[in-house]
Specification:
By secondary structure, this protein is α+β, with helices and mostly antiparallel strands. It is about 15% helix and about 30% strand. It has five helices and twelve strands. The strands form four sheets. The chain has a five-stranded mixed sheet, with no helix packed on it. Strand 4 and strand 5 form a beta hairpin. The longest helix has 11 residues. The radius of gyration is 20 Å and the shape is globular. It starts with a strand and ends in a 7-residue tail after the last strand. About 25% of the residues are buried.
């Protein structure tokens, strides 16, 4: 087993991951940060430090080769951070910080209202009528204990954003049975980019992106 690391998805993408095959989401693209040459050649040499990929091209200091750190590696286990709330049940024993210690088995109610270890609920599954009654915490603060979705990385590669094909769109959770597949993916992509960075990382900019493929897995023992 590789490293255990967090990854962020919004509610729509989490629902896409949880969908039944073949339309479930099994890949995500993330912009490669920092300066990458237009003429980049990736994986130029096999003598690359573990956890990096070689990139050869015209950098600011001339033509040469640099090693770019991979965001994830094959075998890494990712726990999905999402908007959540902590609602203790009557059986909970809590520590001094109010955290639940009951270590309950996950339970999914018929209305998709989710209760997992520590009595956590998730906005992606919470009924609309209940969302306003719950104090939600942002995904960046979600503890690993609260994770309900675990993923194992199966492949990491790099390509231009617009090099995505129909199969890639499907792996991203796009329903390819409907028209305008690439238009819908481009709109989805741009919705995840901050407005201040859209000129650099938006669809029209066609940035280099990490293509991270994964499959759902069970929560590792001891986590």
């Amino acid at each position: 087993m590789g490293r255990i690391l967090p990854i962020f998805f919004n509610g729509d993408m989490i629902r896409a991951i949880l969908q039944e095959s073949p339309r479930n989401k099994t890949a995500t693209r993330r912009a490669v940060r920092g300066y990458i040459p237009e003429d980049a050649i990736w994986g130029y040499t096999i003598f690359t430090p573990k956890g990096y990929i070689s990139c050869r091209g015209s950098f600011a200091d001339g033509y040469g080769e640099k090693f770019i750190k991979l965001p994830y590696q094959n075998g890494d286990i990712l726990y999905v951070r999402e908007t959540y709330a902590f609602i203790p049940c009557v059986e909970c024993m809590q520590d001094d910080d109010g955290k639940c210690l009951c270590n309950k088995e996950p339970v999914i109610h018929e209305d998709k209202y989710s209760v997992s270890e520590g009595c956590f609920v998730y906005q992606a599954d919470c009924p609309e009528e209940d969302k306003g009654c719950i104090i939600w915490s942002p995904s960046i603060h979600m503890p690993k204990q609260a994770a309900r979705v675990w993923l194992e990385v199966t492949d990491v590669s790099v390509e231009r954003l617009k090099d995505i094909d129909t199969m890639g769109c499907q792996q991203e959770g796009i329903d390819i049975s409907r028209g305008s597949v690439f238009k819908r993916f481009s709109e989805l992509w741009d919705s995840t980019i901050q407005k201040a960075k859209i000129d650099r990382y938006g669809w029209r900019a066609n940035p280099w992106v990490w293509v991270i493929r994964f499959e759902r897995c069970r929560k590792p023992e001891g986590q």
